[in-house]
Specification:
This protein has one helix at about 70-80, and strands at about 10-15, 15, 20-30, 30-35, 45-50, 55-60, 80-85, 100-105, 120-125, 135. The protein is mainly beta. The chain has one domain: Elongation Factor Tu (Ef-tu), domain 3 (Beta Barrel), CATH 2.40.30. It has a 5-stranded antiparallel sheet. A hairpin with a 2-residue loop joins strand 1 (about 10-15) and strand 2 (about 15). The longest helix has 11 residues, at about 70-80. The protein is globular. The relative contact order is 0.24.
Length: about 140
């Protein structure tokens, strides 16, 4: 079985390819835990509730036109929904290169962060809306 070393992830936010401006990515798939314990059982019972998925991406900040800040600030300021797409490799979607996609909203944005002499980076969490994050292999 092949192991995956992340060297060539594809990361797209609102139609803009940020693969060359990101240093880490995380996809979090979560469902609320709804307790259904009742008097008839000897232990706790649970069912899966609503999805609460998100993408967390660490961007290497760039203020040029059509780059990181120029794309993210209007999404935060305009309070609009947009697509986020992530694949382990930049190649075509396949069973060995699944695509994760979600309709997201940007609720927090830190446009400037860093120490003297360091690379300016910003970690952004994109919570998904309604259906959560989907996975496609074709």
């Amino acid at each position: 079985m092949a192991k995956v070393v992340l060297k060539d992830c594809y990361i797209e936010v609102n139609g803009v390819d940020f693969s060359s401006h990101t240093s880490s990515v995380e996809i979090q798939l979560t469902k609320d835990e709804v307790e259904t314990t009742n008097f008839g059982g000897a232990g706790r019972e649970r069912v899966a509730g609503l999805k609460d998925d998100s993408f967390t991406i660490n961007f290497q900040q760039d203020y040029d036109a059509s780059s990181v800040d120029d794309t993210l600030y209007p999404l935060w300021d305009g309070e609009v929904e947009f697509q986020v797409v992530v694949r382990p490799r930049s190649t075509a979607v396949s069973s060995s290169n699944p695509e994760y996609e979600g309709t997201c909203i940007l609720l927090e944005y830190q446009p400037l962060s860093g120490d003297v002499g360091s690379l300016s980076e910003t970690s952004v969490t994109f919570p998904s809306q309604r259906q959560g994050i989907s996975r496609s292999t074709s």
